[in-house]
C-alpha cells in the first residue's frame, strides 16, 4: 500500500475531517531523507491500515499547507486526530524508531 498524495484542495476533507487517525508526511522530491523514509511509511501503512492512514503532502506543490503547519524541516510527519495535530515527528528514522514514536496510534 502506497501513501496517497493530498493537496491544499483535498487536505481538509481527507485529513481534518477523517474519522481515522491520519499521519501526514510532509516531503519534497529533492529531499534525500524524505525518499529514505517513504518506503518505511508505506510498510507501516500496509501493516496498520486498520488503525492509521498515511498520506503525503509535497511541500513544493502545496506551500500553503507547509506554511499553515509551520513545516521548517522535512521530512516532517504530523499525526492528526479529530482535525487536530496530536504528534509531530521530525526527520528520517529507521522503522523501529518510527513505530516506537507512533506506538500510541498503532496499538
TrEMBL record:
Nucleus listed as a keyword: no
Domain Thioredoxin: 1-107
Residues at the site labelled Deprotonates C-terminal active site Cys: 25
InterPro entries to which the protein is assigned, alphabetical: Thioredoxin, Thioredoxin-like_sf, Thioredoxin_CS, Thioredoxin_domain
Keywords, alphabetical: Disulfide bond, Electron transport, Redox-active center, Transport
GO-annotated cellular components: cytosol
Disulfide bond annotation, renumbered to this chain: 31-34
Annotated positions for site Contributes to redox potential value: 32-33
GO BP terms, alphabetized: cell redox homeostasis
Enzyme active site: 31 (nucleophile), 34 (nucleophile)
GO MF: protein-disulfide reductase activity
Highest taxon above the source species: Bacteria
Similarity comment: Belongs to the thioredoxin family.
NCBIfam families the record matches: thioredoxin
Protein's recorded name: Thioredoxin
Amino acid at each position: 500500500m502506497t501513501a496517497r498524495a493530498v493537496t491544499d484542495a483535498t487536505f481538509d476533507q481527507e485529513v481534518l475531517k477523517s474519522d481515522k487517525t491520519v499521519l501526514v508526511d510532509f516531503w519534497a522530491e529533492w529531499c534525500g531523507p524524505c525518499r529514505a523514509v517513504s518506503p518505511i511509511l508505506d510498510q507501516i501503512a500496509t501493516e496498520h491500515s486498520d488503525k492509521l492512514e498515511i498520506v503525503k503532502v509535497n511541500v513544493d506543490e502545496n506551500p500553503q499547507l507547509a506554511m499553515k503547519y509551520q513545516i521548517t524541516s522535512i521530512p516532517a510527519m504530523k499525526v492528526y486526530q479529530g482535525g487536530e495535530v496530536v504528534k509531530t515527528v521530525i526527520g528520517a528514522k529507521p522503522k523501529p524508531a518510527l513505530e516506537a514514536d507512533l506506538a500510541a496510534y498503532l496499538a
